[in-house]
Design a protein that fits this description.
36% helix, elongated, 6 helices, alpha/beta, seven-stranded mixed sheet
Length: 296
């Protein structure tokens, strides 16, 4: 059998040379000009890109050096709670600022951390400016009342969410006494209908002219769980041992005055005597629509 002869291999550059030889002089000169231009432009472009990256790094280094300590501005933090909430907010965010404050993901991480703080209801935005300042916008939970459990006091907002911290008695806030459930973690809603009754009762008198004479909502007998024949909820006044027997919790009235009727009696007492209790240690507003009674 005859051996097959090998075909002569033609290299890439040989083929390229043959292709160029077949072109006209004009086309060959045009191709050469383009090739020379590419040989010049490409290295220059690579050098320019490297220079831009170097300049960016230098600028970032200068920005970091000019503003080594980033600042946080809570742009809509209510002044009423800045004093008590500011420490908790700063303490939660400072660890995140110990790294590079120019990190692209830092704003997102700050927003996520803010959402876990018990003072915060909603996070609207976190924005970073070139002067190393982070502006944070949130909807905050405002203190509404103190909830007393033994010797311990916790703050809650008007929706019953517990706010961070443990507190001593402060007359700036009314107190809810007699709540059965244990205190939840900060940022969680307090369980039980009795605390809701206390909040509703205090909210009802919040805008009344006599509100300064109300010190607490008492819910230990909520639903008659201690004594079905006694008032289920009561208001305490600033008189030693003073009580306003309210009757059933707001919204749970059966064959008794409704909230508006009870408030009208107390309002009339205040306008007539200057006292929500009309000068009596204990008054009951649950029975008669036009007057209170004094328990014998």
């Amino acid at each position: 059998m005859a051996r097959k002869s090998k075909k002569k291999r033609v290299g890439y550059f040989a083929r390229l040379g043959g292709w160029l030889a077949e072109l006209s002089d004009t086309k060959r000169r045009r191709i050469m000009r383009i090739s020379i231009a590419l040989l010049i432009v490409l290295p220059a472009t690579m050098v320019a890109v490297g220079a831009i990256e170097w300049l960016d790094a230098r600028v970032l280094d200068q920005v970091r050096a000019a503003h080594p300590d980033p600042l946080i501005e809570f742009i809509d933090l209510p002044p009423a709670i800045a004093r008590i909430a500011g420490h908790d907010l700063d303490r939660a965010l400072i660890p995140l600022l110990e790294g590079d404050w120019l990190d692209d993901q830092l704003c997102e991480r700050l927003a996520k951390r803010m959402a876990t703080i018990g003072w915060v209801k909603n996070v609207y935005f976190v924005r970073r400016s070139s002067d190393a300042k982070f502006k944070i916008s949130c909807d905050y939970r405002l203190p509404f009342a103190l909830v007393q459990r033994g010797e311990s006091f916790s703050l809650v907002d008007v929706e019953g969410f517990r706010l961070p911290g443990e507190y001593e008695y402060d007359p700036a806030w009314p107190v809810i006494q007699g709540v059965q459930a244990d205190a939840p973690k900060a940022g969680h809603r307090w369980q039980g209908r009795d605390i809701g009754a206390g909040i509703s009762l205090l909210a009802a008198v919040l805008r009344e002219p006599f509100v300064q004479q109300i010190t607490a909502a008492l819910v230990a007998n909520y639903g008659g769980r201690v004594d079905p024949r006694s008032s289920h909820v009561e208001l305490a006044t600033d008189r030693m041992g003073g009580r306003i027997r309210w009757g059933s919790a707001p919204g749970e009235e059966i064959e008794e005055n409704m909230m508006g009727q009870k408030l009208a009696i107390l309002r009339q007492n205040y306008l007539r005597t200057g006292r929500v209790d009309a000068g009596h240690p204990i008054v009951d507003v649950s029975t008669f629509s036009d007057r209170f009674t004094v328990p014998g």
